[in-house]
Amino acid sequence: MKLSLPLAMLLALSLAPAARAANETDYKAAYAAAEAASKEAAGMRNQWTVTVSALAAAKKAADGGDFNRAVAAAKEAEALAKASIFQATSEKEAWKAMEIR
């Protein structure tokens, strides 16, 4: 599948280590972006369960004071949400090409 390479690159870039220690402000910004993308995916009825799990992991890490892990999990959740949005939009019309005529 030719869509898997860009998705893999997006996920790899989102998991790249940060050059400095994250703080609560970084976490809040990353979490807000991830939550917005997740809500958009949910609105398209294509929210992945792993996105919800990543958001929960981000919140748990932040509650424990580990903002590096919290930011990483929030960025992973955002990447997953964006991938689910991409899937929903690309498959919106693609199914017609596979329909038996």
Descriptive report:
- It comes from Bradyrhizobium japonicum.
- Keywords: Signal.
- Residues 1-21 form the signal peptide.
- This is SoxXA-binding protein SoxK.
- This protein is mainly α and 101 residues long.
- Helices cover 77% and strands 0% of the residues.
- It has four helices and no strands.
- Helix 2 (24-43) packs antiparallel against helix 3, helix 2 (24-43) packs parallel to helix 4 (67-98) and helix 3 runs antiparallel to helix 4.
> Largest sheet, if any?
none
How does the overall form come out from the CA principal axes? elongated
Helix content: over 70%
Strand content: under 5%
How many β-strand runs?
0
Taken in chain order, the helices and strands follow as: HHHH
Distance between the termini: 23 Å
**Number of helical regions:** 4
Arithmetic mean pLDDT:
86
Radius of gyration: 15 Å
Q: Which parts are unreliable, with pLDDT below 50 for 5 consecutive residues or more?
A: none
Broad structural category = mainly alpha
What does this entry show, briefly?
This protein is mainly alpha-helical and 101 residues long.
